[in-house]
């Protein structure tokens, strides 16, 4: 390749990067306020949003793992997500858990068992955990505040990691799983994500900001682990994006993988401490 061809290739690459960046920014400007407005609106519209999100996540998972597209598999999967959403919304968590066990087994068998059945059934588990965790964090007296805190922490972690990583570059975080992610981006995302969470807590009048900072740092780390986990699944199946739903971001899973991981961690923390999730760290003096 001569210098002219190299320059043309570099220009084309730069154009693609700038186009991708514009798409990411525009998507964020449109979807961000919409999601936040629904969180503020109330539990019912929020539950509807999460139900739709759970269905999309399951569909994208099915596409990634090449699950059967016809027959009982999609019917069992999508109906199960909707029923689980209703059960968790009505606070029938134990019933939802029992139903999930049965539905997962049925989906495994419907997909023919073996490797295909296992990966298909794991998709239902992932979608169900996504739905349940995101519904639980919205529940309670501080549900709205904690949800905004969680969203601010995770989304700014993702955005800051992208921009800091592009700006500073440096050693790769885990080249085999996600070739573009860098340590500089991960650290930048951690710092700015935690600070964004603190800002969201302050807006809601929670002034014990050191505790919120600690929680934000922990959830930022978990969100980045969730991002890497989804990248590992996609790489396992040779897929670059989970879909093409969101310009500049790929599929919904590509956008909410970190949010789902952080929400699950917050829900588990609340359960381990024996209190409602709106006081997820009562025993540690947080919130």
From TrEMBL:
Its EC number is 2.7.7.41. It is found in: Cell membrane. The keyword Heme does not apply. It comes from the Bacteria. It catalyses: a 1,2-diacyl-sn-glycero-3-phosphate + CTP + H(+) = a CDP-1,2-diacyl-sn-glycerol + diphosphate. Pathway: Phospholipid metabolism; CDP-diacylglycerol biosynthesis; CDP-diacylglycerol from sn-glycerol 3-phosphate: step 3/3; Lipid metabolism. Signal peptide: none annotated. Coiled coil: none annotated. PROSITE patterns: CDS. The chain crosses the membrane at residues 21-40, 46-64, 71-88, 94-111, 123-140, 146-165, 186-206, 259-277. Keywords: Cell membrane, Lipid biosynthesis, Lipid metabolism, Membrane, Nucleotidyltransferase, Phospholipid biosynthesis, Phospholipid metabolism, Transferase, Transmembrane, Transmembrane helix. Its main location: membrane. It is a multi-pass membrane protein. Belongs to the CDS family. This is Phosphatidate cytidylyltransferase.
């Amino acid at each position: 390749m001569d210098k002219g061809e190299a320059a043309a290739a570099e220009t084309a690459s730069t154009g693609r990067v700038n186009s991708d960046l514009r798409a990411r920014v525009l998507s964020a400007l449109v979807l961000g306020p919409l999601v936040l407005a629904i969180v503020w609106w109330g539990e019912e519209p929020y539950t509807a949003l999460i139900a739709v999100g759970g269905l999309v996540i399951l569909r994208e998972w099915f596409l990634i793992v090449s699950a059967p597209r016809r027959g009982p598999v999609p019917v069992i999967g999508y109906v199960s997500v909707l029923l689980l959403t209703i059960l968790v919304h009505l606070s029938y968590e134990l019933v939802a858990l029992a139903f999930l066990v049965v539905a997962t087994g049925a989906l495994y068998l419907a997909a023919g068992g073996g490797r295909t059945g296992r990966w298909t059934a794991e998709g239902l588990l992932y979608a169900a955990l996504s739905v349940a965790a995101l519904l639980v964090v919205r529940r309670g007296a501080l549900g709205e505040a904690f949800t905004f805190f969680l969203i601010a922490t995770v989304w700014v972690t993702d955005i800051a990691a992208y921009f800091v990583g592009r700006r500073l570059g440096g050693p790769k975080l885990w080249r085999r799983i996600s070739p573009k992610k860098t340590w500089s981006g991960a650290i930048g995302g951690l710092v700015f994500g935690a600070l964004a969470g603190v800002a969201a807590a302050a807006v809601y009048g929670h002034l014990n900001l050191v505790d919120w900072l600690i929680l934000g740092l922990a959830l930022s780390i978990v969100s980045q682990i969730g991002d890497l986990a989804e990248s590992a699944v996609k790489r396992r199946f040779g897929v670059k994006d989970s879909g093409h739903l969101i310009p500049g971001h790929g599929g919904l899973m590509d956008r909410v993988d970190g949010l789902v991981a952080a929400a699950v961690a917050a829900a588990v923390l609340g359960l381990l401490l024996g209190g409602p999730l709106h006081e997820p760290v009562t025993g540690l003096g947080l919130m």
